[in-house]
Design brief:
The protein has 225 residues and is an alpha+beta fold. 30% of the residues lie in helices and 38% in strands. The chain has six helices and ten strands, in the order E-E-H-E-E-H-H-E-E-E-H-E-E-H-H-E. The strands form two sheets. An eight-stranded antiparallel β-barrel has the order 2-4-3-10-7-9-8-5, surrounded by five helices. A hairpin with a 4-residue loop joins strand 3 and strand 4. Helix 4 packs antiparallel against helix 6. The protein starts with a strand and ends with a strand.
Length: 225
């Protein structure tokens, strides 16, 4: 199964598709599964399809060897003439986010690294922070650093921060045991968080120009041979 590990050096692509209903979400998931099961693209490493939990939509967590390999895929006739029109028809919005994983950590119980796998039944939280290009690095410096406190929070499993290649956003992909435990963490009063965490959150809010979030569960995964 795919691992969340910055040392791999992979390009990580988040393909996000919003739909109006969960029936529409199911159709997108089925189409994604078919694409993943037949993937033979040069440089493709893995794909893990996620289904939306709190809001209809899907997420495909994809690892590529390089940006050049991904661009070759995007320039292909099948992708341009069949894949793009299909998902434009099925989804109400599409985001294709090219990123680099710059920081990741996980609970010690998970072993050497966190996995992205439907077998784990993670409650996966995806947050997209938009930021001005000249402040992206400052946002990463603020957020993407070791956090020992969160390892003590009930339900925490892992999280990673990803740098948007175009410089305009940062992605946070986190795994939790359940929705209830994540919500307890998310709504925790600020005064109950460590001082350095509070300071970092305050600074991050001043840098972020917009925020988009949804929760997902991985439902299908496949890796290259």
């Amino acid at each position: 199964m795919p691992l969340i590990n910055p040392e791999d050096g992979y390009l990580t692509v988040f393909n996000l598709f919003e739909t109006e209903t969960y029936d529409g979400q199911a159709r997108v998931v089925d189409e994604m599964k078919d694409i993943v099961d037949n993937a033979t693209y040069p440089g493709w490493i893995s794909s893990t399809v996620h289904a939306g939990v709190d809001t209809p939509g899907t997420l495909n967590y994809i690892q590529w060897r390089s940006l050049a390999d991904l661009e070759a895929r995007y320039q292909g006739q099948k992708f341009q003439k069949k894949t793009v029109p299909l998902f434009d028809e099925l989804a109400t919005s599409v985001k294709l986010l090219k990123t680099e994983l710059v920081h990741a950590q996980h609970h010690p119980d998970l072993g050497a690294a966190a996995e992205v796998s439907p077998e784990r039944d993670d409650y996966a939280v995806f947050i997209l922070f938009e930021v001005k290009p000249d402040q992206q690095q400052e946002l990463l410096d603020t957020l993407a650093k070791p956090d020992e406190w969160i390892k003590t929070v009930p339900g925490y499993r892992s999280h990673g921060y990803y740098r948007g290649i175009d410089g305009t956003y940062v992605v946070n992909y986190a795994q939790w045991e359940s929705k209830e435990l994540y919500e307890a963490f998310h709504t925790l009063p600020e005064e109950q968080r460590p001082a350095d965490i509070r300071e970092g959150r305050l600074r991050a809010r001043s840098l972020v120009t917009s925020r988009w979030a949804n929760s997902f569960r991985a439902v299908h995964s496949r890796s290259a041979e």
